[in-house]
Amino acid sequence: MISLALAQRLQRAGLRWQPRSGDSFTIPGDAFEGQSFAISELTVEVHSYPGGQVLGFNGTTEWALDSVAVEDTLWLPREDQLRELLGQTFVALTRDDASYEVHVVDAVTGEDDAFSAASPVDAYAHALLALLEQADAAG
Predict the structure, then answer these.
(1) Strand 100-105 to strand 67-69: parallel, antiparallel, or no bridges (unpaired)?
(2) For residue 129, what pLDDT is reported?
(3) CB 45, CB 98: distance < 8 Å
(4) Which residues are paired to 40 by β-bridges?
(5) CA pair distance 134, 123, nearest whole angstrom
(6) In 3D, which of 90, 95, 49, 93 has the Cα closest to residue 70?
(7) Which residue, 2, 16, 13, is CA-closest to 117?
(8) Residue 12, SS3 per DSSP
(9) Taking the domains of the chain in order of start, what are their residue ranges?
């Protein structure tokens, strides 16, 4: 699973989440520290209202929590979701003895950029973070 710090950086860089079945998220703050949740039509559903989206905890007896606004959550994207978000900039995922490396094509220079991390999901997250920051800098 993606590191919490990288998920937070992606959110701050502008990555927006459209919740769907199978997605994982956490609720920042001490009450749920270290806990992650998964959206499933059987237990947690996305409800859309005129005032925004909420995540409904249906049939969950363990928690005294009915719903939480999407804005109050932190998406924990999976490796495949991050790769999809990289789109055509993604070139390859490689591995050496110590780390994984995601190779992307720099949209500005056309050159190959590489982003390393201990896990594939974090390597993808670093690459996407760079892409989002580059887009933000471009205006």
Answers:
(1) unpaired
(2) 96
(3) no
(4) 44
(5) 17
(6) 49
(7) 2
(8) helix
(9) 18-76, 78-138
Longest dimension (CA), the chain: 53
Residue 109 has a pLDDT of 81
Which one-letter DSSP state was computed for residue 97?
Answer: S
Read off the pLDDT of residues 22-60 as tens digits, 9 standing for 90 and up: 999 999 988 888 899 888 766 677 889 999 998 887 665
Distance CA 116, CA 122 (A): 8
Q: What are phi and psi of 70, to 5 degrees?
A: -55, -35
pLDDT tens string 53-79: 988 876 655 555 677 889 999 999 999
At residue 6, φ and ψ (nearest 5 deg) are: -70, -40
